[in-house]
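Intended use. Records like the one below are meant for learning the mapping from a protein sequence to its folded structure. Do not use them to infer anything beyond what is encoded.
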Amino acid sequence: MSATPLRLAVDIGGTFVDAMELDTRTGVVRFRKASTTPARPWEGVLAAVDALGTDLAEVELFIHGTTLGLNAVLERRGGATGIITNYGLRDIFLLGRGNVPDDRMYDFQYERPASLVQRRHTAGVRGRLNHRGEELEPLDEEGLREVARQLVEDEGVISIAVCYLHSYLDPSHEQRTAELLREWYPQVTVSVSTDIVREYREYERTSTTVLEAYIRPIFERYVDELERGLAEKGFAGRFLIMRSGGGSMTSGTAKKSPTHTVLSGPAGGIVGGGYLAEVLGRPNVLTFDIGGTSLDACVIEDGAAVVTHEAELEHFPLLMPAYDIRTIGAGGGSIAWIDRGLLKVGPESAGAVPGPVSYGRGGTRPTVTDASVCLGYVNPDSFLAGSMPLQADAAIEAVRRTIAEPLGLTVEAASAGIFDVMLAKTVGAVRQITVERGHDPRVFSLLAFGGAGPLVAPLLAREMGVREVIVPFAPSGFSAWGMLSADIVNDFSRTRMEVLDEVDLDDLRRELAEIGAEALDSLREQGVSDEVARLENQLELRYLGQEHTLTVVVGDELDPEAIRAAFNELHEARYGHSMDSKVQILTARVRGIGRTVRPELPVYPAGDGDPTRALTAHRQAFDFGTRAAADFAVYDRSLLQPGDTFPGPALVDEGTSTTVVHSGQHVRVDEHGYLLITLEENA
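Structure written out for the chain above:
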């Protein structure tokens, strides 16, 4: 038995910080929340840990999910960043691809977001490789010295992104540049493209490097401050940070590669969703996470979430593995407003400061949380287990003044309208990752978590015909719980671009072995022993002439026919057809995985099936099944037992989250204490 038997997982969101403690001896989980502190985000994390009262000297593992990097880009709070590239290519990042986002295709007034880098902060240096990685012109080190002086001394740049043409084939020019920059200006952060990703497409590789350079100074400070604060409280265990594509990495590795953390907050819930899909025997799951500022949905098919190798952050491409998440600005803090007589919800959020009107922190514009108070779903006196009473009268007045009166509606109708608009946006987001990709949402289970997930998920299930809603224990902290089951993961890749039937298999095996050695070294540096390390070889493939790719896991044998068959099968499943065209290898990849011990899902003894013991009250609330106010039974979730069943309309209150069950729906408590919500005819 470990002398330090506790694990802590902390997920920081736009409104609240969720902290969860797991006792590995007993399997007991404890959960607390604290408010996010945007100006000094580490303080909110430490406050959530303090709320748990955990003895950090007994904590063996602290794992953390954060959207700090994401928010730094969205809010333009990164460090002053410069770019060094080849002479004549200084505008590669500013020009980009020149394309217009799909949702703004017909908007003739569309303007691209402001660049992260000013043009005067870009510079070109002589030195060039050809498309085979052969040197055409040596690196001009004197010229490099002059542009570095201009960027750092004249322009005040504190972070530099280095990206040269074709350097993915030979990184020597980039590595020499980084060596000299660190020698001349040790105080400046230097990010090198081939340290991050060795793949073709100069703009995408440059963008990835720039984003890392942009967020790295503030990310390093954040992690340093958090490490210092934890150490002062007695923590001496391992500190891991979630990755956007699943798995985790040590805090030291994260400081070197912060771009891999930009979507790490939502990733925790998807890792947990994949684990539950396996344990609960439900291979097809839709994760449905609604927090204070956003809604994140992801498909888990056959027990695995879809991972893409190119993400996008405010239209800037990122060449990194990330879960295929559909995110919209619709959360509990999303602001309701009127635009030319039409009711809209989000994407602007009240955030943690000032927060919804009902928080009493100075907010004046009504949010989804305020609407839920007006509709009777949330008990103002027991919000966050009574630690943060809400001001119901202020919420009602804000909805009346801002929404109801301008639209000629009652407060109840206006609040229901806010939910209707949010539901319409939600259906659109879920359709994008299900129906539009050939998935039938009716065969999926909807896993509802986040503070507002159980509030909205039963409505979504009614609208889309989803067969089942699963509400896990402590849904508002489920992303933190999911982090506890995350492996240590790192990904490495190299571009090849050759036809599968013409590839030199021995050369491909040799390159996969070289990439695998990098992955294994990375795992060792993060404390993973060779006994628990596992390497997964992957090939990124496409039909010759296509632009987009699919990733296929391959074994050591590298049988071209088997690889082709697996690719055809995946293409058929994803796009509804396969072709007889030649298959092209674009990228060779290796994922290094260090297995961790997952928390066991407890099984509780069955009760007598009568939930009366948990019935604490009845309350008038709005029932979307009848579109009218109705009498809702209110249950205390902590008193429900496996085997209990009851119909809607009902509210299940567990302090930090409320599950809203409408008429025509039915609830059953499973052996793990999870709520399973179905239509009454399917109960």
